[in-house]
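I have been asked to look over a protein record a colleague put together. Thanks in advance; the entry in question is below.
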Amino acid sequence: MNIKGAILLRVRIAFLIVTLFVMVVIYRLVDIQLVDGDHWRQRAEEMSFEYKTIEATRGNIYADNAELLATSLPFYQLAFDPSLVNNDIFTSKIDSLSHLLSIHFRDHSSDYYKKKISEARQARSRYLILNRELINYQVKEEMSDWPIFRLGQMRGGVIFERRDERHRPFRSLAQRTIGYFNDNVGVGIERSFNEYLAGKAGEGLFQRMAGNNWKPVNTYSDIRPQDGYDVQTTIDVNLQDVAQNALLKAVSRYKANYGSVVLMEVKTGEIRAISNLTRTERGTYAENYNHALGSSNDPGSTFKLASMLALLEAGKVKLADTVDTGEGTIDFYDGKFTLTDVKKGGYGKITVQEVFEKSSNVGIAKLVTEHFGEDPQKFIDIIKSTGYGKPLDFQLLGESVPFIKDPSHPTWSGTSLPWMSVGYETSLTPMHTLALYNAIANDGKMIQPIIVKSIKRADKTIEKFESKVLNKKIASTETVEKLKDMLDGVVQRGTAQNIKNEYYRIAGKTGTAQKLIDGKYRSQRYYASFAGYFPADDPIYSCIVVIDDPEGWNRYGGDVSAPVFKEIADMIYSKNLSIHDAFSPDLRAHEGTFPVIRAGKLNELNELCNLLGISNHYSDQTEEWVRSDVENNAIIWKTNHQDNGLVPNVQGMTLRDAIFILENAGVKVSISGKGRVVKQSVTPGARINSETTIKLQLG
């Protein structure tokens, strides 16, 4: 055989082998597809099924008055199984469905959706995500009535995959306190009460589809999830709004590093408002950290309340005792440490009460070192015995551990006692300080602040929380009463006179501490605060306001933090008729020969007095509406109302006159009772706006 014939033979043999191989492959493909196809498809489906977790719907978080603070809203992703639809229905309705999809999502043309669905149907796809944009429940209901989709999941192929998303109706209000919880990471109530809110997950059968997507099969074997419990907080939405807005104005004005405010009910320990605002890189403020609970600092002069408590409880001083503060400076530790007072030249010789009211560093340090210098541990023991400086075991996670130094600490030195007496070398959060001030307002009983009052399922209470009593009596009744007098004096005569007002009394203490930065106290960087309660004679609320590192020349607690306290207190007073006096002394009827003349229109009251023979006179610049005052045996008319955009004082007036004045001022009025006006729900002098409504109580 020649070479040419040999080559040709080899080519023919190779061709026959390749042809035989191709025929075998074709045979196997036909066998798998047609003969054993059902078997292998069943095996593939069995391998692509898996039981997966079905998350429970998270419980709601409510305010004290049942307003929603956080809830889970259902959203849906739209998917489609085009293989389930009858040919005639698909052919006749696909154009209408594609058109509706294009109109709703506004991202592609109807031709695009038609092509996408048709190709998936031709490829026998069992799962097609039509659009990844989530839709709400109302839209889902509308889509359920669309062509093809109206046949349901089994015949129409439509798949609505639920995705719950957390929603806060009041947005940033108490945002950090409400918190969040995602992937085992969270803060606030959402994190601290996740065990209740999360519910119990279920389990369902899912099928793996193209693109590693999972389609729910919805079988009877699915285990339904158990929805989470609801959490009811103690927060009052209206007071939270007042507190947060007041704080925001202050931190913005002073360009502070952060600000914090906590408002608590004295008797119950229930927190009605809590706000924490931190300066962002853009210069705005956001709730991203709970400073009230987590930020420990030297409290400054608010600690002087504890120092005075120790002095009084040990029987070392009386309020009338005098202290020589000299020219406002005092040296300790062989002249290596000097304390000074704010007032240049000092306060000279003043009483113990004045030492507190004027917040004299020299006076406090001098008293503490004189009476406890030989036994500083006794000073520490008295303070710690109150409960101040101990963990509160607060309901939210993240409470900073309080610290009050004692002589056993390695950093204790000769300067520690005088330095601590005025609020340094300690580390306390605003919440810890508030607990002490609230105890004074509460006649010496220290209670645990709480922010969650119950766990519920619908209207059924599952668990209830109440404040624990941390100390039944932090000091003797005599000491507590003296401390109350001192706190009242701070506002009446001391460092917080700027928040004194004629309608109700505030008791509290200012605090200004130099900030500890890189191990050194900075003289021009301050931690300004005010802690107290109101009304001073019958406390209902306690409150603390902290402004960290305010800018400007006036950066003390009395100038920066106290006005925030007053703004909050004013708003509460104006809306709470129960804490108003029925009549101020100058509004009550005068005994003797004078009739009940309180307030009204000048010409009418003047004519009435003249007819009765009562001497009456005008004061300077008297206006049309007046209020009566008595001097000797005559009535003096004084201006009662001027049209200046502020809420007028109508107490003591007849209803007719009161309504005339208020409605002309643009104020809405509601009334209860009979007689003259004895109370008005909005404080005179408040700014009138378009929504101002005043409730008048007659009697």
About this structure: The first helix runs from residue 3 to 35. The chain has four domains: 3-47, 52-233, 240-579, 585-698.
